[in-house]
Amino acid sequence: MKRILVFAPHPDDEIIGCGGYLAANSAAKATIRVVVVSDGAQGLPFGGDAALRQTESRAGLAELDIGDVIFWNFPDRGVPLSGTIIEKYQAEVAAFRPDEILLPAPGEAHPDHRRVTRGALHALEGRWQGALRFYETTQPAPLVNTTSDISAHWEAKQRALGAHRSQLAQFDYLGHCESLARMRGIPAGCHHGEAFVAFDWDGAPENFFEGRPLISVVVRGDDPVFLGHALESLAAQEYDHLEVVLVWFGATPPQLDDFSVLDIRIVAGVPNRGKNLNLGIDAARGEYLAFLDQDDIYEPEHLAVLLAELQASPKADVAYAGCRVMACRRDGAAIQIAEQVAEMNRPLEPGRLLIGNTIPNHALLYRAATLRHYRFDEELPAYEDWELLARLDLAGYRFAHVDEITCEYRLFSADGTATLEQSHRDKGYLGWEKKVHERIVRDFAPRHLGQLAGLISGLEEKRDELEQELTAARTKVAELRQRDTDQKTSEDLLRRGLDALGIAQPGHAGLAALIGRSLPEQTLFSLIVPVYNTPAELLAETLDSLIGQAYPGWELCLVDDASDRPETLAALDSYRAAPALAGKLRYLRREENGGIVAATNDALALAGAPYLAFVDHDDVLHQEALLEIALALRDAPDLRLIYTDSTMIDHAGRPLNAYHKPDWAPETLLGMNFVNHLTVARRDDVLQIGGVHPGFDGSQDWDMLLRLAEIIPPPQIRHIPLPLYAWRATNESLAYRSHTKPGALAAGQRAVEAHLQRRGLGAVHCTPNPGGPGIASTWAGAPRRIEVIVPTHRNLEGLKTCVRGLLEETTYPDLHLTLVANRCETPEMQVYLAQLAEHPRVAIRPDPRAFNWAALNNAAAADSDSELLLFLNDDVEILEPGWLAAMNRYFELDGVGVVGATLLYPNGELQHNGVRTSTAWLADNIQSTGSYGELAVTRNVAAVTGACLLVRRDVFGAVGGFDERYAVNYNDVDFCLAVRHAGYRVVQAADARLVHHESISRGLHDTPQKKAGWEREMELLRNKWGDYLNDPYWTEYQVQAQGTRILNLV
Fold first, then answer.
1. Which of 80, 272, 647, 679 has its CA 20 to 30 A from that of 716?
2. What pTM was computed for the model?
3. Of the CATH numbers 3.40.50.920, 3.30.70.330, 3.40.640.10, 3.90.550.10, which one belongs to the domain with range 786-1029?
4. For all residues of the chain together, what is the average pLDDT?
């Protein structure tokens, strides 16, 4: 009996690619096993529970009479190419003993598909032989050699695919498979076919129809930390048909578990630069060769760009791109990028390599054949790459330049201030320049004299141009010196005037200091600064920013958490003796390192001012930060918690982005700590909650905010929408990469879970947010009767889908449906409504008046006594059974009046993620999850759409229902504004998702009458609400700088 083993990268791939073939073989009593390699979680919009994909997979395969399915649960889009998965392939084949193995076609677009096929075949080389059958999924394979007639099993395949509802909601896979099956059936003379590449394999190495060339990347390494960064840049390459030849000459073998998506082979190296490069060349199997030192990196597009250049330039032997030179320093396992010191991106001039090299080795991509004839000189301890390039140039090989920056050349020094020349001098390279020139001259021939003459002529022309520029510059300097004399005279007059006012410096800063001194003389703020092994220059920037505050009423409570880095201790000693801190500094050094929580609590014990400001040891306060907060407290002395917007800066202090935060948003705080820095809290309140609590290290500030929220009423919390705090993104901070500190995220989960439990909620469970950064939480919701009100007109098919989803697929127990039948006059609609009227949970409410969405819903709501009212469009499709229970749950939180759902387009793209309001554009659907996923959490919003709006009945009555002057447009926005104005909050739920076929029931603004109505209702909204339209909850990142390699919040 035939034994068939199928490897599917994701649940449903095997049905899309070979479902009919499997059904036919199952009917013929073949023994079939399906191995699903990844968890398929990325196939669920905004993440989701991978268990759903497994349930769908089992149900789909059952339609084909296949029950033997195994799930390996590797991460979706992260299926490994090496590591333990190789052993799993081998063990599975050895245990099952298949006659035939089915795999995705090698040219598939999805990287997981390619890695499954490549990894399985690599694992089975020399271990198995038999029939291979490569199947196609989302794109036709370019070459096939056999087609199976699946006409008799087509319906079974459709049923199997229909079980994958989560995928069909995003893409028309049924239509795709129908088209592909008909196309494959035509040449085979059948209605439906499945095409394959069939191959009888003897287990020998083959390239298996992979049309893309293989690139071999030779990496020299002996340092695991540096190597990790280099391999990370290779794993991120857009062109993924590559192998890594790691020439390792370190003391201990490298740990490569984190890089299993790469095909890595280790070659034993020696402490010889040229020899290691040649060893890598000997081991390489690729058609193209690239090199990467362990302390440099590629940008993601690097190999793709260079390969495209060589393929487009068949006469070129080598392609090279531009390189960014970065000054860096290493701090343990962390790499800090200080600044860009140069850029190497010039076309190669004839003969230029005779005098020096401006092309780093890792900026190049070679045709492998080139390096079969020319090798690196193993006698050179430095500049072996320059010497090779010079020989290639002299031999007539052609170089193609790509005018793009696609890699980084990193220079390391103790203080992060290295230049290229200084770095080479420190390494002792410069002494080998003469040796390289001797090697080059050895290959010099008379034909090269023309190149050298041209180079000299070009340099002379450049010298003449520079001399002319210098003469012009000298003339300009003379003019500027005269202006400087005039300026100094004016400055003297200005200084005398400023001295008379007591202003130490001119401009805005001086005036700010003057205002600060005008406030009552008191120590208002204790600045809480725990320190541990902070780089001296960063600690100095932090302390200088405190000393320079325009408002003088502060004290510094600084605790050193047993630092042992000499530069940190020296900096602390220097500032302890600084005159500017005399009388302001309260200092404690801990005998042993206790962590951020212990150090912060020790600083709190030193504090004596009524308000506490929390500052990290490498961040920077804006000069007017404390002044702005002092002014806010002067105007509203009952404030107990204040926070500001912030910017993010890199190691060198360059701005990366500005973070504009929402006003106080309690539900948003459950998903992410949007407050963070700068936070100022009343000292008595912080002491009342017990300071910062152990057990939450990494998220101790989040836990503190949640505890403060339990005792401080929202009117006593103030957001100052100014970026007064610069948060430094370094390898040590959570701002660098949240997933590099999993302990911090786990601490955040514990903090939110404890907070919800203290609020009396039951069955609380917190997990990482599947749709982005932050946390997702669930808890038990009290059973409430929900009246679902659905106005309908003539959208019969949409209504059937909606009603079926409500009554058959939604698991909420106490759901009752009122259908408002607005001029439903067609016979088909009348018959359907009559059938629904027999259902015990359905009421039909005819309402023949002219369409007015607000009036229709108000009338239906008046007839209901349910505790909650859900206003739902008839063009909404249910995706998940627990969606309504998820929305109901948020009413356990005091103050929540309205909850909205996340709506998707039929193709799975995001349609509605809340409504943003503004005096400029009035209201706009939010159709993104933000720059860094900050809008992917459940959060407070200005408004939600009436297509799915759940509201407490008492709140609905308190605001008078929907304003019926808004017949079609803005009725939902106006209602949410009224709810908020009455003191309730509006919540946009990320965990309740529906499909919305927008505007099916009433159409678009496609007539002059509809457009006039829209304009009239728009003007009504503007006049009614005025400045209240300014959205207090809008949050966004505004990017300030691009190209940095530090920031990565995705």
1. 647
2. 0.58
3. 3.90.550.10
4. 87
